[in-house]
Amino acid sequence: MRALTPAAAVAVAALVVLAGCSALPAAESQPGQQPTVGEPESAPSDLADPDEDVLGWEGGYWYNESLPVTTGDGLNGTEREMVVNRSMARVERLRGVEFQSPVDVDVVSRETYREEYANAGNTSETLRTFDDAKFEALLLVGEDSDAIDVQRSNRGSNVLGFYSSAADRIVVVSPTETPQIRETTLGHELVHALQFRQLGAGYDTPTRDRANANSGLIEGDARFVDQQYGDRCGAAWDCVTDEGGGGGGGDLHLGVYVMKYFPYSDGPGFVEHVYDGDGDAEDGGWEAVGDLYDAPPASSEQVAQPEKYGEGEPSDPTLRDRSTADWQRVSVDGRAPYGEVGVGGLTAMFAYPAYDDSRDGVVLSPREFLNYEDGEVNAEDPFEYTTTPVEGWDGERLWVYEHEADGDLGYAWRIAWDSPGDAEEFAASYRDLLRYWGGERVRDADGSGEVWRIPEGESQFADAFRVTVDDDRVTIVNAPTVDDLDAVHEPR
């Protein structure tokens, strides 16, 4: 990694500390009924157990009780049970929703997480092919690396915990071999248990943009709660914290990280916008947030710009298949047949050169994509995802192609914008991005667009590109060589 500016370095540190959840939706999880949002009980002065289960009390513990636990030697089974019950009571107190039954919580070491969870699940060769092309289109992961492996490596290094809806279980990653828990991480994952058990959060995620939109609600709600939880720790509440740092370090790919960090950065602001009664939410509060689960945001843009929530689905910039017979479209079972990365992916694409050490220069300076507050990067919301070249996004289709004989990859990518000016803004920054990675323009724009080439050996993204701006649409076609561009997508 290049030596970062102080501001950029702060943002990276914030990422490792804050990224804490991998909620795992399961196809079999069923939406639950919207629970009644209640008023939490105030704990009696003697902390006596209530006659029946109430909000703010769980398993024998009130939300404001102090616990006889020590963390230096890890938490034994009894101590862990006390902490989990009190944390459930605290989440109830903050979120206003009653747990109907206990939640199983396991604590594992970072090494165990990497071995047993970070690489879990089968990955088909078709999915690897599709993701390789998608992340190459974003100029994040080149042909010399496997995009799935890069994503798994990132998860192994920074996840602090996750809730599995399939197993209805929380796993917290301890920074040491002796089991320790950061209570705000536990509280965050307990919110996920409520979401999947009772709020119907088991959404389909056919594209990256849809995943970021859904997670903007899911992670935004959980982060909004754990921020309030953290504010009370050390002030109104005694809290258990681990003795270690945040994530597990390692060789993070920061471009991929910026894309996947979107829900944690912009989701809380989206939820707070609704909670405060801004926009179309009449009354705000937790009932208004609960209503979002019946109508989640349609795109990551609606999360990043909450005032756009409810404006409907993004547009479908149709891109017909105009490939020759030896180039075949690649689609993955269970997913949309095309890619759609949204504002989170596009911002990561333009921001990544600021973290790349292989070349000089940047496309977006840190001041353009980092959120500053009183001269410092905002640790709660470090990234600005509606940067100038991305603002005005209105939908996209990225089609992946594979050559039938030699397995070479290409793609045809059309992005819709709110206006011709937005399209030109994006295209100008995209040309700067090609230049950053060593691109040379080999043919000026004509009726079929302009052609660029990144020579072999110049960077990890050596390929040919055709960029066409047509009113409020930008179309990018990629192929191994200039001669292959028309075979992947014939211009008309």
Short description:
This protein is of the alpha+beta class. The chain has 2 domains: 303 residues, no CATH class; 162 residues, no CATH class. It has 15 helices and 14 strands.
Characterization of the model:
- The protein is α+β, with helices and mostly antiparallel strands and 492 residues long.
- The protein has two domains: 6-308, no CATH class; 327-488, no CATH class.
- The chain is 36% helix and 15% strand.
- A hairpin with a 2-residue loop joins strand 11 (440-446) and strand 12.
- Helix 7 packs across helix 9 and helix 7 packs across helix 12 (342-351).
- The longest helix is centred in the middle third of the chain and has 25 residues, at 208-232.
- The chain is elongated.
- The protein starts with 5 loop residues before the first helix and ends with a helix.
- Mean pLDDT is 89; it is low at 1-34.
Q: Topology of this protein?
A:
Layout: H1 6-18, E1 57-58, E2 61-62, H2 77-95, E3 104-109, H3 110-118, H4 125-137, H5 147-158, E4 161-164, E5 169-174, H6 183-199, H7 208-232, H8 254-260, H9 262-275, H10 285-291, H11 300-304, E6 327-330, H12 342-351, H13 366-369, E7 372-373, E8 376-377, E9 393-403, E10 409-417, H14 420-436, E11 440-446, E12 449-454, E13 463-470, E14 473-479, H15 485-488
